[in-house]
Amino acid sequence: MDFDLSEEHQILKESVRRFALQEIEPRSPGMDRDEAFDGYLWEKGRELGFVGMGIGPEYGGSFSDHLSLGIMAEEVSRVDAGVAVVFGAHSVLCGNNIERNGTEEQKRKYLPLLASGARCGCMGITEPEAGSDALSIRTRARRKAEGYVLNGSKMFISNAPIADTALIYATTDPALGQGGLCAFIVEKDFPGYHRGKSLSKLGLRSSPTGEIILDDCVVPEENLLGGVEGTGLSIMFSGLDVERILWSCQAVGIAGAAFDAALKYAKERKQFSKPLITFQMIQDKLANMLVEIEAARLMAYKGLACLDQGKKRQTRMIAAQVKLYACEMVNRATSEALQIHGGYGYMKEFPLERYLRDARAYAIGAGTSEIQKLIIGGYLMA
Ligand SMILES: Cc1cc2nc3c(=O)[nH]c(=O)nc-3n(C[C@H](O)[C@H](O)[C@H](O)COP(=O)(O)OP(=O)(O)OC[C@H]3O[C@@H](n4cnc5c(N)ncnc54)[C@H](O)[C@@H]3O)c2cc1C
User: Fold this and answer.
1) Is residue 161 in contact with ligand 1, taking CB distance under 6 Å?
2) Extended beta strands in 145-231, E state
3) Which atom of ligand 1 has the smallest separation from the CA of 207?
4) What is the band of 154 on the pLDDT scale with cuts at 50, 70, 90?
5) What's the confidence (pLDDT) of residue 5?
6) Residue 194, domain extent
């Protein structure tokens, strides 16, 4: 066990940090205000190979290992977590899922386009009536002569307003339960595919979120992911493991940025003729933040290592644990960091209020904290 990053990972960390500070940071307040992702960042991400990080080099991407994806997620989120969500939904939720589960033909057709960023991807499980109970999705796929005909709608989908390629979960027959679940690669130009309305959010406002409407959407038979009906459940669950660990790395990134800001402020701001950091109640907050951030990062790294080592059972358990811990932790950390800033923290002039708004999404997206507790409870009962 070695807790130091390798030279390669350290170089990656520094180059992502540079990209985030030079390119993302100046655009972040505008994206937050206008609730829009700046297309310049997509082009820059393409140029630097960051948009294809979830996809292997044999398909034109720059995937090396899951730890690299975690480092990228944390470093981008230190500056603007919404941008990390855009890249993650594209290259991991869509691209990486296709690479892990697609047929060779599907991979050759779609991955180079996604890896280069010529196309943007998204992934849709959630529906207006099916959130935590993801297995109750109603989007229906009926097999007909022209292919599969999909009907239904997807809700809260990251990148839906800008995506060209969507990984869509549907059921061929609700009576089959889990056995009817399938995943399809759906292009935005397929007849019957509609980008629904964009949704306005509390935080993560640089990440476009929206609905997808499938109205007699005709999907060619060869776009059934993996080519076998009824395999949607394992595709969905393995994808969620990756998503939860990387979502946790994003939470660590936001919490780290909030901690750094709070520490700096506590050293500079004086009250009662002394810097805030000399007050033990302020030290208490900073100490708790530091320890919790470190604990969450270590758990996330364990999850990333389990992914890299192909340890499926351990991955599922640690994914639920870190998702629960890191995504609750980021809410505590950003709240305490804002508290240390006093009134200034509540003002838009400082990024603290954005960190707090961004953090709030983390205990909800990728499966709520309550659902992670149910997963952990299920393991304990087994
Ligand atoms: C910013 C953001 C981005 C997202 N991006 C995507 C995306 O790209 N693709 C996608 O498919 N989805 C996405 N989602 C959707 C997300 O996965 C769902 O919001 C989440 O799974 C919760 O579902 P829900 O919102 O329908 O809440 P519900 O399932 O209705 O839950 C409401 C509340 O009830 C609780 N609850 C539900 N069941 C139980 C239970 N059995 N025991 C105890 N408590 C329970 C929940 O924990 C929650 O507190 C995104 C969400 C957000 C906020």
Assistant:
1) no
2) 147-158, 165-171, 181-187, 193-198, 209-219
3) 1
4) very high
5) 96
6) 121-231
